[in-house]
Amino acid sequence: MNQAFIVTKEHRRFTEFANAVRKEKTIGICHGAAGVGKTNSARRYANWDALEPYINAWGPRGDHDAKHYALANRSRTVFYTPEVLCRPKDLMHDIDHWQIKVGICADEHLRSLMPDGEVVRQNDVTRLVELLIIDEAERLTPTALELLRDRHDRTHLAMILIGMPGVDERFRHYPQLYSRLGFSHHYRALGREELLFVLDRHWKRLGRTLDPDDFTDAQAIAAIERITRGNFRLLERLFPQINRVLKINQLDTITDDVIEAAASILVIGN
Ligand SMILES: Nc1ncnc2c1ncn2[C@@H]1O[C@H](COP(=O)(O)OP(=O)(O)OP(=O)(O)O)[C@@H](O)[C@H]1O
Ligand SMILES: [Mg+2]
User: Fold this and answer.
1) What is the pTM of this model?
2) In the structure, what pLDDT confidence band is assigned to residue 1 with cuts at 50, 70 and 90?
3) Which residues does 226 contact at the CB level (< 8 Å), separation at least 6?
4) Using one digit for the tens of pLDDT, what is the confidence trace for 42-65?
5) Are both 37 and 158 inside the same structural domain?
6) Which of 17, 115, 196, 229 has the most crowded CB, counting CB atoms within 10 A?
7) Does 56 share its domain with 80?
8) Percent of the chain scored above 90 by pLDDT?
């Protein structure tokens, strides 16, 4: 499942959006359909695939510390996914925890840059964290939203709330939060050119070469475009099935029929 991250146009747009929210010290909303890649982009922005396990382990210091300190200092971001029935108090407690840990790492990096003897400790390392990204934001209760708004007012911590389409509408019901929203960002599915790029990789992985000028390949591409509408998760789920259909039927070529057969096995109700 964990294939290499592809730096898509949408990811670059997300990065620009996150940088803007951070610079303006405001609150931003990122919304988009299920499976388009919101979580992946946000985790990538926060270097979270590296920092989360490192912070969770938090063991005796070792050789790889400096690398993680530098990562934390570069992203200065906490990525957080609330639990389904999260209690507001636990939410704030967890956020504090991550903010302190990322802050300590960034602080360590900054201190490593200082000449010896000039060690100045930050009195509040949490201040080094500039952005908080909350995924699955529809899980936040009104109280949690109120606590986050209060945190934002007091510390000017920039925040991004990620959710499904319509999450921005939900926040309209909270005028105090809504009036503080700086940016709203729509995370879209892959465009045609990028879809071709991703498909090319999938084709290669199946040991084949994709040629959009070839009639059969063009039809296959059209079928995939229609079925997945450029949705990353659907693409990811479709390809193992395509592989299966090819194997079971002892076929060599990925045709639109193969794709239709593969799609019929999946429940695609996006
Ligand atoms: N940039 C990318 N490069 C490679 N694979 C990606 C990329 N973005 C997403 N994916 C793949 O697509 C799948 C869905 O992505 P992700 O979980 O980020 O979607 P999402 O928008 O957060 O969906 P949901 O709204 O359901 O949480 C992931 O399993 C991931 O493997
Ligand atoms: Mg997600």
Assistant:
1) 0.92
2) very low
3) none
4) 999 999 999 999 999 988 788 789
5) yes
6) 17
7) yes
8) 80
Residue 232 Cβ < 6 Å to ligand 1:
yes
Does 95 lie in the same domain as 169?
yes
3-class SS of residue 62 = coil
Q: Which of 167, 186, 205 corresponds to the end of one domain?
A: 186
- Asked whether residue 155 is domain-assigned, the answer is yes
6 lines ligand 1 (CB under 6 A): yes
pLDDT in tens, 206-243: 888 999 999 999 999 999 999 999 999 999 999 999 99
CA distance 150 to 9: 34
Number of domains in the chain: 2
Residues 210 and 65: their CA atoms lie apart, in Å, by 43
- Same structural domain, 218 and 88: no
pLDDT (tens digit per residue) in 130-153: 999 999 999 999 999 999 999 999
What is the span of the domain harbouring residue 16?
Answer: 9-186
pLDDT at residue 139 in the model: 95
- Tell me the CA–centroid distance for residue 35 and ligand 2, in Å: 7
Predicted pLDDT at 123: 73
**Nearby residues for ligand 2 (ion, Cβ within 5 Å):** 39
Q: Is 202 in the same domain as 97?
A: no
- Judged by phi (left if over 0) then psi (alpha if -120 to 50, else beta), residue 253 lies in beta
Which tokens hold the place of 14? 């997300």
Q: What are the C-alpha distances in Å from 45 to residues 99, 120, 127, 134?
A: 16, 28, 19, 13
Smallest-distance ligand from the CA of 35: 1
Say whether both 32 and 135 belong to one domain. Answer: yes
Same domain as 152, residue 212 = no
The response to whether residue 31 sits with its C-beta less than 6 Å from ligand 1 reads no
Residue 35 CB less than 6 A away from ligand 1: yes
Co-location of 151 and 85 in the same domain: yes
- Closest atom, ligand 1, to C-alpha of 6: 3
What span, in angstroms and rounded, lies between the C-alpha atoms of 157 and 153?
8
From 135, 233, 237, 270, mutation site for ligand 1 pocket: most ligand atoms within 8 A of C-beta: 233
